[in-house]
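Lesson 9: reading folded outputs for more than one chain in a single document. The general rule is that every protein is listed as its sequence immediately followed by its structure tokens, and records are never interleaved. Here is the first one.
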Amino acid sequence: MKIILSLTVLFLLAISPCMAQKPSGNSSSQSGVEPEIRKLTRSWDEAMVKRDINFLDSLLADDYIISGLAKQRYLDLIKSSEIKYTSFEREIISLRIYGDTALVFGQANVNGQSSPIGWFSSTFSFMDVWVKQQGRWRSVATKAEEIVQTYQKQKIVKFGPEVKASLVIVFKSDVSDEQVEDFRRNVLQVTTSNEGGRRYLSGIRQYLRAPRIQNHNTVAITFHEDITQGQRDEIMKRIKPSSLVYKVFENVAPAEVNLDQ
């Protein structure tokens, strides 16, 4: 459990103070920075899933820090972690450029599997600090905070196999883990940028890979409390026609689902 709590894993940490600079007045020289940073962020996400330590080493500055954790320790933890990410996706909400420094703000959706506790899912806000060093952009610091009190009046979001979900989607018995991930990306998410950024459909608050039910892969979805009927209809319209889906249950905890009923 301590592995999950420390960054949903390795990522939910704090940043060193940011450098204050005036925004550059040369807009033409900055025109290519935003797509480059977006592309690097997407590549970073992919490297987390692949555990591509060599790429991460080149992407992060030598003095990169996450809270009090130095770069090498961070890389060692990723390499040796018992956690396997099936997806690590950050949606960039705001990108600000100050000369040779860029600040990236956004929201991340992380899914994976941990040998101690099984499947996990997390959504958290983040900020990355990038600095252009020797002609190329490298990240020097990261701050991320797990979102546990995100919606109306800071209510705590409870989620898990024992907690009632808005939808429990049970897939056909021959559907693989890879097909479930394709379903998540292509049915429950939409593309937000040319660089491959993605976000969940409007109205979806949380997504969870639940334990298998009678040898069927299963996922659970929780809606925002203020989801509109139009948003709900759009989600259902995308889910029900899928050839991968066996059954869909509403307003039930995954642990309570019985396929024989």
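And here is the second record, again sequence then tokens.
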Amino acid sequence: MKILFAWRYFKAKKSTNAINIISWVSVSAIILGTASLIVLLSVFNGLEDLVRSLYTSFYTDVKISPASGKFMHVPNTSLLKLKQMDGIVGYSLTVEDQALLQYNNNMLPVLLKGVDENYKNINGLSQNIFKGDYQVGSADHPLAVLGAGVEYTLDIESDRSIVPMTVNLFRNGVINPSDAASAIRTDALTSAGTFKIQEDFDNHYVITNLGFMQRMLGLDSNQYGGIEIALRDGRLNGDIKKKLQSIFGTGFLIRSRDEQNQTLFGTMKMEKWVIYIILTLILIVAAFNIVGALTMLVLEKKKDIQVLKAMGADNRFIQQIFLNEGILLGVIGGGLGFLLAILLCWMQVHFKLVPLEGNFLIDYYPVKLIPGDFILVGGTILIVVLLASWLPARKAALQPFELKT
């Protein structure tokens, strides 16, 4: 009954045209606010998925690293238990350290990462080779897979160069002050190919042989920088983490892919919430139109309110009529806003309305619609219109009842 009253008040022609104008301005503001929220949240969802796909090609599901220092001793018994553990697809032993690469007259500091033969099976780096081959050689005859940015800076053709690069590494351990030069190990490193994933990796990383890195750094055969693990379902849950902790003990850090990139993904989520808060504030400002529209409607419907009270309607009934009027404005505006947002996102995917500048896999801003955003925005609109409608509705309910003869 109360909804029917609200619907009739909404569609009925008002004696003052300004009420109609303000009502539709309110609906239009909610449409634009809703569409803006959904579209921008969907863009953040799309960008997050894009970044995750890029980082998945380089970072594994789980990484075990030393709690302190750069390197750790891992007993063979622990590796055997890890291999037999349920939910583990495979693992790779790695050593990573800063190095100085030189080719002809070009020099570049890089992150040199030594990997074992199983590394190509636990992440997607080997599927992102765009020049040459994925080969890391052996401890005595190492090969290197360069990031695209490293290749460009060194001015080397990774798939056809027969002149090796020179690599300089600081040896692990205590440095003798009287013979500081002995702390620097130098060797030749031949390029085998180039990978291209994302600038953060392409400009800094070079992949080579694990045994070569251990030899250059003076590490033992069971001393590593990390253990990178691929999981069957791709997600580090509490049960798996507990089992890994029981195998390796407390001297090791066990981190998921998100935890390995906590700053990046944390910043992206924070930016998404900041945008949501800003647009919600704009939506709240737009909702003041609802206050104006309902206040004028209450003034126009004074006689109707008196008639309803004469028929036995109490203040609560009157208040709910005008609250439903505000909710109706919000539902119409929100519903049309949802449809507009879906249409804009569909057009962005199919017609690439807004291009994406930079070196990415796609040339337009990605969008991803998720139900959670619709629930969040719908709930926000409902709260905003209820707050905006409460004061005019309360004013209508408190209209004094007067009998006139």
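What the second record shows: DSSP finds 13 helices and twelve strands in the chain.
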